[in-house]
Amino acid sequence: MAKSRIAKHKIKRKIGQSIALLAGNAYLPGFVRGEIYQGPIKQVCLPGLNCYSCPGALGACPLGSLQSSIADPHQRISFYVLGFLILLGGIFGRFICAWLCPFGLIQEWLHKIPSRKFKPENNKKIHNVLRRMPLVFLAVFVIALPLIGTIGGAYGSPWFCKVICPSGTLMAGWPLLSVNEGLRRLAGVLFGWKSLLLIITAFASVLTMRPFCRYVCPLGAIYGLFNRISLYRVQVDQDKCISCGRCTRQCPMAVPVPLDANGPDCIRCGECAAVCPTDAIHVGFDRKIILSSRKEQKPQA
Question: What's the whole-model pTM score?
Answer without folding.
Answer: 0.91
